[in-house]
Design brief:
Number of helices: 13
Number of strands: 11
Structural class: alpha/beta
Shape: globular
Number of domains: 2
Strand content: 5-15%
Length: 389
């Protein structure tokens, strides 16, 4: 048992070895669930081996053993730090209860969720869309990645800034949904994109039936469905992940033109990368019959994953929030209530005052990346294909 005071008012006896630590503060409940961290070699070893492909750890075997031998010494510090960070964030009272799961070890992962194992193994933290929609406010922290380990000196320490940023980022996803129903609106976005792409979808399938047997052109149909899904995910990701990234780094922003310009170039290069990926996708999509179908389908999916799951949306979305505050004098709270469509329009309005081209736009054609233009490009290619054939 440990004693923690002045964190949630008064003193609370906490059993740090309990599988679930419960705290109550002015009607707000915080639960920290610890038994989801499988602190044993068997369950953590694969995690570290898989993460090694992303983070290039030197020695995953030794890293796992070091983590296990030293984690328990820092467990109390970790739990106290999480409690403190939740408590000092004024937005925590927006929800009646937050559950924080300490994750690590593949056996603990909710495999029925749509999130891929890849994402969960490499993410510092996450929330689950379906849970937020159901009013379940759960934050998952990937503990083995929220630490510092020096294998040479056998030193383990918490990466407190990383834990703080991750908590704030995931909390913002929850608050954004409560204020704006962004995840509920996801279905509306998907329907609109589906409606916009449907005529071209049908025309393409009709054309490619001429080239493929039934079993082959089905893969092409699948490509079109995946493209539609990726455009939807990118739009939503710019909105939701951008808000969360901005909120996570609020204290690091300075409102000067030179600082804004630095962030502009970061977003600029992120959009340039997305445009390159879209060009590659369209090239594969419309010249599919001339290549090896299996190989092209695999490459196609890789490009789609880089669009919908890449880091670009974080930088672009955060820059959009920053720009609206900087040029249009909106508060973060005001932006929080904007729909995805209002958000894009407000950003374009702010960019007119900067004298520079917007990095993204919905349908005005003004952005370096314009979502309506992508759909139009598909339409144009379909028309060209029809005329040739």
């Amino acid at each position: 048992m440990g004693l923690i005071s002045d964190i949630f008012g008064g003193s609370n006896q906490l059993d740090y070895n309990s599988s679930k630590i419960n705290l109550n503060f002015d009607g707000f409940k915080l639960n920290i669930i610890t038994n989801t961290l499988k602190a044993d070699i068997k369950s953590l070893k694969y995690d570290n081996q898989y993460s090694n492909k992303i983070f290039n750890f030197q020695d995953t075997e030794k890293r796992t053993q070091t983590f296990l031998s030293l984690f328990n010494k820092s467990k109390i510090e970790l739990i106290d730090f999480i409690i403190h960070e939740i408590k000092i964030n004024p937005l925590y009272k927006e929800v009646p209860c937050i559950n924080i799961y300490l994750m690590g070890g593949m056996d603990a992962r909710p495999l029925d969720d749509k999130l891929s194992f890849y994402k969960m193994s490499s993410a510092l933290g996450w929330v689950m869309t379906r849970e937020i929609k159901q009013g379940k406010y759960n934050i998952y922290l990937n503990i083995p990645l929220l630490m510092y380990i020096s294998l040479e000196d056998n030193i383990y320490s918490l990466q407190k800034e990383r834990i703080r940023d991750t908590l704030q980022h995931e909390q913002e996803h929850i608050i954004h949904e409560i204020k704006n129903h962004v995840f509920v609106d996801e279905a509306i976005i998907r329907k609109r994109i589906y409606k916009a792409l449907y005529p071209y979808h049908q025309a393409l399938i009709s054309e490619y039936k001429k080239f493929f047997l039934l079993g082959s052109w089905f893969d092409y149909k699948k490509c079109l469905m995946l493209l539609r899904e990726s455009i939807s995910l990118l739009m939503r990701g710019i909105h939701t992940e951008g808000f969360a990234r901005y909120f996570e780094n609020t204290s690091k922003y300075t409102y000067t033109f030179s600082s804004w310009k630095d962030n502009y170039w970061k977003a600029y290069y992120a959009v340039r990368e997305l445009n390159r990926n879209f060009e590659s996708i369209i090239d594969i999509l419309f010249y599919f019959p001339k290549h090896n179908a299996k190989s092209d389908l695999k490459t196609f999916k890789l490009y789609l994953d880089s669009i919908s799951g890449g880091i670009e949306k974080y930088d672009i979305g955060a820059f959009m929030v920053y720009t609206i505050i900087f040029y249009n004098n909106k508060t973060f709270e005001e932006i929080l209530y904007m729909s995805v469509y209002q958000f894009f329009k407000e950003y374009e309005s702010a960019m007119t005052k900067s004298g520079l081209e917007p990095v993204v736009s919905l349908n005005s054609g003004k952005g370096m990346l314009d979502f309506n233009s992508i759909l139009g490009r598909i339409s144009k290619e379909v028309d060209k294909k029809s005329l040739k054939d």
